[in-house]
Amino acid sequence: MNDRIESIDVLRGLTIFLMVLCGNIAWNAGLPAWMFHCQVPPPDYIFNPEVKGITWVDLVFPLFIFTMGASMPFSLGGKLRRGHSIGQVSLEVLKRWLTLAAFGLVLGNADLIVSNQEPLKILLRVGIWIGLFLSLWRVPQKGRIKGWMVNLAGVLVIIALLTIEKFAFGVKLSVHSNNIIIMILSFLALAGSFIWLLSREKLWLRAVILLVICALKELSWHTELLDFLAIPQGLNWLINWDYAQYLVISIIGMSMGDILSKARLEKRPMCEQPKSWKEIVFGVAGMLMLPFIVWALFKRKCFLAMDVTVAIGLLYVFLCGRQKDTANSLIMKMGMVILAFGIAFDPIDGGITKDYCNLSYMLTTGGLACLLTASLLWLETLLKEKNKPLCTPLSLVGQNPMAAYTMPGMILNPLFYITGLGSIVDAACSGNPLMGVCRGLIITLAMMALTCLLSKKKLYWRS
Q: Full-prediction pTM beyond 0.90?
């Protein structure tokens, strides 16, 4: 049985699309503040935690964490159903954690020689990407090539090139030079996986864990409660309690994944009667809630955001409360409740902010992720009746996220500049918002095309 649910892959692919887009739009194009992180507004782009609110850019990271949590019931649950013991699965969790941590170290140290003009440095970065490709490639077991030999060759290539980076370019390699996003994801892969294993048949325990994390986060947000739990300086690059706060989003995601996994195992449809007017109304509403809530919180219209959330939630219960619960209806209800709590915490936390991350931000983004997923499930079910996929390009990107994530910085941008195209486009972007967005789209669409090609050829990275 194929456990893949296209909505999760599409959501992950959409997240990668937005991540690459927001990282490659031109900062000199005069784009409005909502095109950047809310706490890093133009024109000076200086971090200011006093700015409250979120933009679509601030949704990218929590959406990815959400999809990571949603995948756990399928990946870990699938192994248990195939007869793997808890010990075997735990060892695989530890292996994945260390693999992701090593990946983060390589990316961070490779970034120490970022250059879009020097050919030797560009070649070195491209070589490191090739080493990552070989070391993370999930080589098919039925092939003639031994997978471990290919992966080992990739590791040796990376070690050789980092050695060249150190001695030929005088770069000081360090465990503290790492990719913070990947390091957070590695921690969440470790802690989140064990939380799922412990609570997969004890939802009350998961609820307790979630409440404890939320309570500790909220108390430490207003006090110095958790200062005594500081990790020693020598280890805080690998394990940092600041990363644990994102478990709130991960647990919301894994709970949604449990709903989908159970429905799939019981061979129940994700959505009943997708063509009914009620399903259409709330399927569309779930999608529209995301831009509306982001706009409302960006403009600091928090009461309006709460009023609309409560009104749509009550309307959903009134119109659909007597229907049999399906996966997308349960996820829709869960999303509405979590979103309402997130908005309610906005004034308590002094205003929602991504940095420094507060509980309002995590609950709000987790709730929005649920609503978006419920809408994607409705749309996926509707299209499946016509034998049409939800969105193949985004799905293919979502199946190969780490390759897609590394491609712009290590392959596309260097080529963009070494060919001279980058300098021409950058000059055209100055004071031109349309060209500023086009710059990001050029890199993003190129990333999508190459990642789709890799996925079609079954060249998947471990992630």
A: yes
